[in-house]
Amino acid sequence: MKKGLKNIFLFILSLAMVVSPFVAAFAAEDAITQTIENVTDYLANIALVVAVLFFVVAGVLFIYNGGDTKKLDTAKNMILYALVGVAIVLLAKGFVSIVRSLVPGD
Fold this sequence. Notes:
This protein has three helices and no strands. The protein is an all-alpha fold and 106 residues long.
């Protein structure tokens, strides 16, 4: 269950990173650009919501670990994965903004 949730989260983040650069590539076509921006923003929002869920579940595991070091390690890893995921989403959105500012005609 935990591994499946992690894989879904990583898939969404990977998809957001793959789609994000195409926003800048289609800078001349406003309709396509807007559509790609909307999709990228939607995927980023989903990834951020999943990250918040990871934080909540990890916090509950952290508080109610009952002295079990395995649960404590799982909670720490979940927090780490969530932080890495948020950083990737923010970097992807920032990368798109930088590339769009460098593309002439925008």
